Structure formats: structure tokens, C-alpha cells
Amino acid sequence: MTVEEREMTVEEREMAVEEREMTVEEREMTVEEREMTVEEEREMTVEEEREMTVEEREMTVEEREMTVEEREMTVEEREMAVEEEREMTVEEREMTVEEREMTVEEREMAVDGVQTLQRSEVVDDPPQYLGIRVQSQG
After folding, report:
1. Residues with Cβ < 8 Å from 132, sequence gap 6 or more?
2. Model confidence pLDDT, tens digit, residues 16-33
3. pLDDT for 42-65, tens place per residue?
């Protein structure tokens, strides 16, 4: 081997050593970066957890308030339903009374109508309703 070749191989070796050192430094950098990201993530997760617990606490307070409101609503709804049922039964009773009165009145009207037709002496155009035939009396 010539001196030049030896110097070249020495230089190549030095270059290879420098490259190795660079890769070691890069590895160390990536390790440091990883450690940094891990620390950042830990910090972030701790902060997020704190924020989340605050939000969760607020949510549970809101949920409690909602359940109280829901209970109040169900009580009000029950009271309203009971009141509506009472009103409906009163109205239904009144309606049945009115219906009875109407049927009595209708019967009376029909009887009065038939009696009126029977009493009349002259019927120009006899009605043909309710199956009643009226004959004019002569």
C-alpha cells in the first residue's frame, strides 16, 4: 500500500468515526426529543386532566340541577294531569247531563211537532220526514 492509500484509508476511517459520532449525537438528540415530548405530553395530560375534572365537576353540578328541575317538572306534570283529569271528568259529567237534556228536548220537540201536525186542519205541503205521513183533513 502506498502512503497516499494509507492516508486515504485513515481519512476514510476518520470520516466513518465522525459519521458514527454524528449518528450517536443524532440518536442522543432523538432520545432528548422523545424525553421532551414525553414530558410535554405529561404536562399536557396533567393540565387537561385538571381542566377535565373542573369541567366534570361543573357538569355534575349541572346534571344535579337538571335532575332537580326534572323532578320539579314531573311533579308539576303530575299535578297538571290530575287537574286536567278532574276538569275532564267534570266536563264529561256536564256533557252527559247536556246530552240527556238534549235527548229529552228532542223527544219533546218531535212529540210537539207530530201533535202540531195532527192538529192542523189544512196542510198545503206535507213534510215527509221521520217517516210521518200527514193527511190533510177535509
Report:
1. 114, 117
2. 898 888 888 888 888 888
3. 888 888 888 888 888 888 888 888
Q: Of 109, 111, 89, nearest to 101 (Cα)?
A: 109
How many percent of the chain have pLDDT more than 70? 84
Pairwise CA distance, residues 129 & 126, whole Å:
9
Sequence-distant (≥ 6) Cβ neighbours of residue 133 within 8 angstroms = 126
Q: What backbone torsions phi and psi does residue 35 show, to the nearest 5 degrees? A: -60, -40
- Is 123 within 8 Å of 117 (Cβ atoms)? yes
Task: State which residues form the domain around 56.
Answer: 1-97
Residue 17 lies in a domain: yes
User: 41-52 as b/e, with b when 16 or more CB fall inside 10 Å?
Assistant: eeeeeeeeeeee
> 117 in a domain, yes or no?
no
